[in-house]
Amino acid sequence: MAGHSQFKNIMHRKGRQDAVRAKLFTRLQREIQVAAKSGLPDPAANPRLRAAIQAAKAANMPKDNIERAIKRGQGGEAENYDEVRYEGYGPGGVAVIVEALTDNRNRTASAVRSTFGKHGGTLGETNSVSFQFNRVGSIRYPAAVASADDMLEAAIEAGAEDVESSEEGHEILCAPDDLAAVQEALEKRFGAPEQAILTWKPQVTVPVDDEKAESLFKLLEALDENDDVQRVIANFEVSEAALARIAG
Fold it and tell me: Domain TACO1/YebC-like N-terminal, which positions (predicted)?
């Protein structure tokens, strides 16, 4: 996903690794709590919980933090989080999807709407932009676990639809309902993945000129910094020159 990977890269180029890491831990803990509370307590029988735990381990979250999040979810002490989605347009006509876990829908909706407005975007109704994306299961492995050909072969055998391999790693794509089965099949061969989630893949990307790119990234960064937001997906494509300038 060009938009997602470019946004991730720009955050690292801007030297925000520590802030990104802290935010990631918060998101992962919240996801573990929700997964533990909504499904079976055994990770072996709860693919969502297993994926959340593995993502936390891949991010080097301390074991105590992971166990504490699981206990909060299983013990019923965790907050009641609702899964909500917001959709809108950013500068340059870029479609933006914001997924959140929140214990206060009014607070989160107000904050997201305000962020869109402050940064040249417009918050739309549900399904106002999601038709431009496909809902997919996404499983990520490091590049070192297999060659592109071996990963493609294994993924097809597991029931996946496609694989996108690069120096950054392998992303295996599958139908949403097949995520757990594909994840389990790949785990038997390559071990636990870095990430296994349901997400959105743009059907097409929107080229954004250098002038609007900076405004767009300010919007995406502001949305990403909201404590309730789990992930931000957008269908943009910007030049390497624009990325370098924004990072500088």
Answer: 5-76
